[in-house]
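Milestone M4 deliverable, item 7.
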Amino acid sequence: MRSRGLPQVSVIEAIKYIKNAYKEVGNKLKSFDGMTEAMGIKKEFGSRAFGELRDYNLIIQEGVGWRITDLGRRVASDEKNAVIEVLLKNDIMKHLFDNFKDQNVDKDFLETYIKKRRLKYNINSSTVADRFIDAMKYINGLQISGISELQEKTIGENKEIDIETVKIAKLVGSLSAPNDENEIANLIGELTELAKKHNLKTLFGTMNALKGMLGSKITPSDIIKGSGSRIIEAFEEDLGIELDREEQTEESE
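Output delivered:
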């Protein structure tokens, strides 16, 4: 079922909540209070948020408890098709995705298009444009900097490579389109620890240097900007493989 209006919980926020919860509770059945706490949602906002997360098909109510759905699990694992499926749950986002998924459009264009097409009366065109752009950055980040399903299968079949490095590869990919400054800092920290744990020396050195810059006057987003290819190259060097990826071009703002 698709929602026709604009949900209060954006796709990016929904992903953050589900990732938080899945990391804490996995597939366990949790109480309302337990699930809101795992997601990091304020209880007073919980009822509204849960209704919209259920519309996204990320959680399901079972009796008096709540559980993360299979789609939610896939979203928490950064499966590109799963994230797209969530985006398409909303009619407005589906319309924009169907028309502009392969086009390079900016916020000004989207706002004008939304107003002229009257996708929804009394809707904030700026918010819609921001949400669509943020969602597409996230989705394209999974495609460009992450690993494909074939690459994941290849890594998994390689007896010399620990299967958990697939998770590391996905974290590397998620750095290309993080949600906020805190998320960037958390990703840098998590990647540093995982690289150390799995003895990925080149990646650890790269991430540790970036981690050392956290807390300085430089913002996390500035720290990571321009470092994407260096991080991927370090990962490739440690694993002795070469990931297929599209050429990334930085757009001038």
